């Protein structure tokens, strides 16, 4: 059902999208869901390990069907992150693992993250004996697939299935956040989710960001149905998984200030938020008293990511001046070196906090929504706006962070928002699988790709601001002129 806005501040009667305009198979929410599940669990999860791929390419007597599969095998080949997860899980369990992978794939890092125990079949404490750069909430999702398989090939498949399942669950929560959707609307949401899965590519199932994604979707569901404690718990757990998603808390509350106006509601949000964060803080302290400090220090010491907004500016300046600022592998990603980039990386976090607070204040000044549909759209837009603040102003912008937006993008019907997110994800997928070496070396092709994605995200920011502003103008009560 779509509500038509008028310029006089009133609403025309709701109109329904005619289901007869679409073929029956497109109108089926069940078929759309099955297709999205197939894309996430099977299509994106088909890639072999890189060493297996190299062996297939070098095999002269390869069957024609297998050879025709090689382009897909290359596009969805397993990632270095999964190798790190597998080796870390085995080190924790005391089984054989590749220590060289744990050291080489991260690059430069603090000395306390370079000491690993010998395989002895005994459990080794994370953080104190086995270095781990994620909060404790991520540990079960890294270790669990290793209990099902002793080989990396099958570990990666099980891990991919687990992450795909979490993202599918997140979309399901976003679909349910619409109180009264029609079958056509539900089908549309699932078809669009499948398109997002394809645009995000292998990143969707090869990183742990799906954990934060499903928790943010749970927070969205709780916000729509006015469950303050569950809302705070969802955001807190998302922060317990990836830290930075806590920045969605204030913008989403600002978008629905009527619900969170009372002290009791704010107290319930705070209680849930604290309980969510405790899900990582308490286990980390129990495993190692210094774990929280080491984790904070690890991420604070990270340099300026080459794919961040600031990294793009440095890359453009380097091309214009003919001097590359230099990129090194450190803390598990490619970061810029030099005093200038170090200064910007330290200033980025305070700037991100300032921008997020400013955005929250702007959202709070909007007029009160006049319908449940507008209230829900405002919450979704505020969450996407907070994610944009993170993507555009954080010192690290790994493309997998865009996975967090999938449930919110599925929940919103704005075509401009959807198109921008699809395009931004597709650009990231193109350079990651096509010419990431050009990005790391800051060659023109890589800089153009990063610049194009930055432009798309800037357009997305404009579209979101306009979407919130238009609804705000439409909900204003028109002034009444005195009769002449």
The biggest sheet amounts to:
3 strands, antiparallel
Number of helices: 21
The structural domain count equals: 1
User: SSE string, helix = H, strand = E?
Assistant: HHHHHHHHHHHHHHEHEEHHHHHH
Alpha-carbon Rg, integer? 23 Å
Q: How do the strands line up in the largest sheet?
A: 1-3-2
Overall shape: globular
What is the residue-mean pLDDT, rounded to a whole number?
89
The helix-and-strand class reads mainly alpha
Poorly predicted residue ranges: 1-18, 477-484
**Which band does the percent of strand residues land in?**
under 5%
Distance N to C terminus: 40 Å
Percent in helix = 55-70%
How many E strands? 3
Characterise this structure:
Helix 2 runs antiparallel to helix 3 and helix 17 (372-393) packs antiparallel against helix 21 (444-474). A hairpin with a 2-residue loop joins strand 2 and strand 3 (333-336). This protein starts with 28 loop residues before the first helix and ends in a 10-residue tail after the last helix. It has helices spanning 29-41, 50-58, 64-75, 80-93, 99-104, 139-148, 152-176, 183-200, 203-206, 209-224, 228-242, 249-255, 263-287, 291-300, 309-321, 339-364, 372-393, 406-411, 415-434, 436-440, 444-474, and strands at residues 304-305, 327-330, 333-336. With 484 residues, the chain is mainly α. A three-stranded antiparallel sheet has the order 1-3-2. The protein has one domain.
């Amino acid at each position: 059902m779509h509500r038509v806005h008028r310029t006089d501040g009133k609403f025309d009667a709701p109109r329904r999208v005619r289901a007869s305009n679409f073929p029956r198979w497109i109108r089926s929410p069940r078929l759309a869901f099955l297709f999205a599940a197939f894309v996430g669990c099977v299509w994106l999860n088909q890639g072999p390990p890189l060493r297996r791929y190299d062996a297939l390419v070098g095999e002269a007597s390869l069957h024609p069907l297998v050879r025709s599969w090689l382009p897909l095998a290359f596009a969805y080949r397993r990632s270095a992150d999964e190798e790190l997860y597998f080796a870390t899980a085995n080190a924790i369990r005391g089984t054989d693992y590749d220590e060289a992978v744990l050291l080489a794939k991260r690059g430069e890092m603090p000395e306390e993250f370079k000491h690993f125990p010998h395989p002895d079949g005994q459990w080794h404490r994370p953080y104190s004996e086995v270095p781990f750069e994620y909060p404790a909430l991520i540990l079960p999702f890294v270790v669990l697939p290793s209990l099902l398989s002793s080989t990396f090939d099958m570990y990666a498949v099980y891990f991919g299935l687990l992450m795909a399942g979490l993202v599918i669950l997140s979309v399901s929560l976003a679909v349910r956040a619409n109180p009264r959707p029609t079958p056509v609307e539900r089908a549309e949401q699932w078809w669009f989710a499948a398109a997002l899965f394809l645009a995000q590519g292998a990143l969707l199932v090869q990183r742990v960001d799906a954990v934060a994604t499903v928790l943010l979707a749970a927070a969205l569901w709780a916000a729509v149905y006015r469950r303050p404690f569950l809302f705070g718990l969802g955001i807190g757990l998302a922060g317990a998984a990836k830290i930075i998603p806590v920045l969605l808390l204030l913008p989403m509350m600002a978008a629905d200030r009527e619900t969170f106006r009372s002290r009791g509601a704010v107290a319930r949000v705070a209680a849930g938020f604290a309980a969510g964060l405790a899900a990582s803080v308490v286990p980390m302290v129990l495993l190692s008293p210094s774990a929280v400090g080491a984790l904070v220090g690890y991420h604070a010491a990270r340099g300026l990511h080459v794919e961040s907004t600031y990294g793009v500016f440095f890359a453009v300046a380097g091309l214009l001046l003919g001097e590359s600022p230099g990129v090194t592998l450190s803390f598990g990603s490619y970061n810029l070196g030099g005093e200038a980039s170090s200064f910007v990386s330290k200033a980025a976090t305070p700037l991100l906090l300032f921008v997020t607070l400013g955005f929250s204040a702007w959202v709070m000044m909007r007029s009160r929504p006049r319908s449940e549909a507008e209230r829900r759209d405002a919450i979704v837009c505020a969450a996407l706006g907070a994610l944009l603040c993170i993507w555009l102003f954080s010192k690290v912008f790994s493309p997998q962070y865009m996975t967090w937006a999938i449930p919110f993008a599925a929940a919103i019907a704005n075509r401009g928002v959807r198109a921008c997110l699809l395009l931004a994800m597709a650009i990231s997928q193109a350079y990651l699988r096509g010419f990431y070496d050009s990005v790391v070396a800051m060659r023109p092709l890589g800089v153009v790709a990063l610049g194009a994605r930055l432009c798309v995200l800037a357009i997305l920011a404009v579209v979101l601001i306009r979407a919130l502003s238009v609804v705000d103008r439409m909900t204003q009560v028109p002034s009444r002129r005195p009769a002449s």
